[in-house]
């Protein structure tokens, strides 16, 4: 994702850019991952 942002440049930070949304969502997920037990329960429920 960081490489895509570098390739596109400053235009990737525009609010209407899909890259800006993806970048924000991916990085937010890295800082707020679901708890391990929650993930295991969700995976178990799907199986």
UniProtKB/TrEMBL annotation:
A Pfam family hit: Acyl-CoA_dh_2
Domain Acyl-CoA dehydrogenase C-terminal, residue spans: 2-29
Protein name (database record): Acyl-CoA dehydrogenase
Molecular function GO labels: oxidoreductase activity, acting on the CH-CH group of donors
Gene3D superfamilies in the record: Butyryl-CoA Dehydrogenase, subunit A, domain 3
Keyword Oxidoreductase listed: yes
Key words, A-Z: Oxidoreductase
Domain of life: Bacteria
InterPro entries: Acyl-CoA_DH_C, AcylCo_DH-like_C
Keyword Cytoplasm attached: no
């Amino acid at each position: 994702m960081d490489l895509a942002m570098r390739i596109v440049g400053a235009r990737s930070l525009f609010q209407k850019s899909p890259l800006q949304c993806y970048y924000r969502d991916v990085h937010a997920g890295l800082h707020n991952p679901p708890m391990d037990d929650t993930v295991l329960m969700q995976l178990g429920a799907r199986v």
